[in-house]
Amino acid sequence: MIKNIQKETPNASRKRSTQDLLNACDRNLPPLHRKVYIESYGCQMNFSDSEIISAIMEKQGFTLTSSCSEADLIFINTCAIRDKAEQTIRNRLLDFNQQKIKHPDLIIGVLGCMAERLKIQLLEEEKVVDIVAGPDAYRDLPRLIHQVDQGYKAVNTFLSKEETYADIEPVRLNSNGVTAFISIMRGCNNMCSFCIVPFTRGRERSRDPHSIVEEAKKLFDKGYKEITLLGQNVDSYNWTPTNATATTVIHNNQTVHFAKLLAMVADIDPSFRVRFSTSHPKDITDEVLYTIKAYDNICKHIHLPVQSGNSRILKLMNRTYDRAWYIQKIDAIRTILGPSCAISSDMISGFCSETEEEHTDTLTLMDYVKYDFSFMFYYSERPGTLAARKYPDDVSEEIKRRRLSEIIAKQREHGLFRNQQHLHQVQQVLIEKDSRKSPDFFQGRNSQNKIVVFPKGIHQVGSYVDVHITNCNAATLFGEVC
Ligand code: SAH
Ligand code: SF4
Ligand code: F3S
User: Fold this and answer.
1) Are both 145 and 16 inside the same structural domain?
2) What is this structure's pTM?
């Protein structure tokens, strides 16, 4: 669905298109320097998309800028997961509105999940916006910009069944040169009743494994030491040669599932660390666990969001597993990978009709697992989701917040408990950057994804060091290089 809306006052000064820009460059005329500023919100996949958008824009001759005040074009790559995320973006648009009053030629584009959710409605609600583009429409951005140059507003919120941007080499933004993210799939086929993602990201599709391995190898050759494979549900990664092109059939016509993909990436080099997120309790297999065990360079950390510890609520959430199934998966992780594999989670408090006892089930499940860390939220009804259509949002905000604070307090206890298990141990740490608190200290992460802070000494960002852990709090380990 592509729609264009004529603006009331077409802006003549914008009538130079990106093609004019390229033509100007071709003819060796002074280039029209247009700068694009990209601001990203939401999950890691969205940040990863911003790197694809950057690559598309650079190819069109735009220069990336990290200063929004000097931009000719502002893209805000948005999240729609909770109402608060959308409010943050609306407030940000007010700031950009001020900037546009001073610079009427400024183009403002809203991209990503909020753009996909609200579509053309966003243009009506937020007059400052010129472009609305959903997550599968980024190849179309040059054309959309051209339309705005012609004096129109432009929208593309078409969701694709095939787009994976596999051939686009992302421009790494805010990179430390050590760690990077690679999207291995897009969309989600699960219909968790609370979740907007299937509506904003469309059908699940897996990216060609050949292009994933190539991208990882390039990063390794550039000196990167760690990659994180990203998907809403990595365990359902499934690529079959039927979606391959002639040049990409490299796996003896075999289907590549997630365990195989993990092994293919881990085989690049033993010093190249591999992480992944997010795992789904209904889909994670023992084969994946055995693959993690078989490779020292596959990090020992699994993000396995539970959402609730109560089976009735899990059913209402349409998570398709119950408490007993989840516990069985935790037991399998502990049996196959041992107690030192970190496990983290996402939790939602106050989902529709949740009782006090059902909330307590979440707390007791937490006691059973003792998560290393968690992302914790209270339920935010999202228009159009199954829950919004079927179940009243009947837990008061006060109760949602109180339950959330109990979950957070428990998580803090468990985070501290898990971190204390590392005390007096020697941990291999990949140095990522200066510590936030002091330029005399580095911070890096161990295999379990724990942040480790230690004095710099003679070491360098991007190297592995063995750190003797001497202290910790619920969030961080502290130590000294041995
Ligand atoms: N694909 C991942 C989750 C992606 S969204 C998975 O299945 O685990 C990240 C997290 O946001 C979810 O795990 C959930 O805890 C939270 N979330 C999603 N929708 C929400 C909503 N409507 N209200 C509150 N939290 C929500
Ligand atoms: Fe949302 Fe569920 Fe898909 Fe995760 S698995 S993105 S929570 S629908
Ligand atoms: Fe991610 Fe938010 Fe979209 S969590 S998939 S950016 S709704």
Assistant:
1) yes
2) 0.92
Q: What is the pLDDT of residues 190-200, one digit of tens each?
A: 999 999 999 99
d(CA 249, CA 158): 29
CB 407, CB 375: distance < 8 Å: no
* Interval 51-74: pLDDT, tens: 999 999 999 999 999 999 999 999
**What are 111-152's pLDDT values in tens digits?**
999 999 999 999 999 999 999 999 999 999 999 999 999 999
d(CA 172, CA 51): 6
**What tokens were used for 136?**
């599968």
Q: How many residues does the chain have?
A: 482
Decide: 233 in ligand 2 pocket, CB within 6 A.
Answer: yes
In a domain, 234, yes or no: yes
Widest Cα–Cα separation across the chain: 72
Answer whether 46 contacts ligand 3 (Cβ < 6 A): yes
Q: Is the domain of 411 the same as that of 432? A: no
**Domain-ending residue, one of 299, 328, 361:** 299
Whether residue 140 sits in one domain with residue 16: yes
Decide: 36 and 63 in contact? Cβ < 8 Å: yes
In the reported structure, the alpha carbon of residue 195 is separated from the centroid of ligand 2 by a whole-number distance in angstroms of 6
Whether the CB-CB separation of 178 and 461 falls below 8 Å is answered with yes
- Taking alpha carbons only, the member of 346, 330, 265, 301 closest to residue 446 is 301
* CB 140, CB 133: distance < 8 Å: yes
Q: Are 133 and 111 in contact (CB under 8 A)?
A: yes
Q: Could you tell me if 289 and 347 lie in one domain?
A: no
What residue's CA is closest to ligand 2, atom 4? 232
Atom 5 of ligand 1, residue of closest alpha carbon? 81
In sequence order, the 6+-apart residues with CB closer than 8 A to the CB of 23 are none
C-alpha angle 317-112-207 in degrees, rounded to nearest 5: 80
Q: Which atom of ligand 1 is nearest to 196's Cα?
A: 19
| Interval between CA 202 and ligand 2 midpoint (Å) | 11
Alpha-carbon distance of 230 to 218, in angstroms, equals 17
Domain-located, residue 305: no
> What ligand 1 atom has the least distance to the C-alpha of 81?
19
Question: Which residue has the CA at smallest separation from atom 13 of ligand 1?
Answer: 346
Residues 136 and 191 in one domain: no
> What's the number of domains the chain is made of?
4
Provide the residue range defining the domain that includes 345: 317-421
Rounded-to-integer distance, Cα 277 and Cα 228, Å: 7
* Domain final position from 403, 421, 439: 421
| 378: in domain | yes
Assigned domain for 27 exists:
yes
Give residue 281 CA to ligand 1 midpoint distance, Å.
Answer: 14
Strand order across the beta sheet in which 301-303 lies: 301-303, 342-349, 373-378
Q: How confident is the model at residue 32 (pLDDT cuts 50, 70, 90)?
A: low
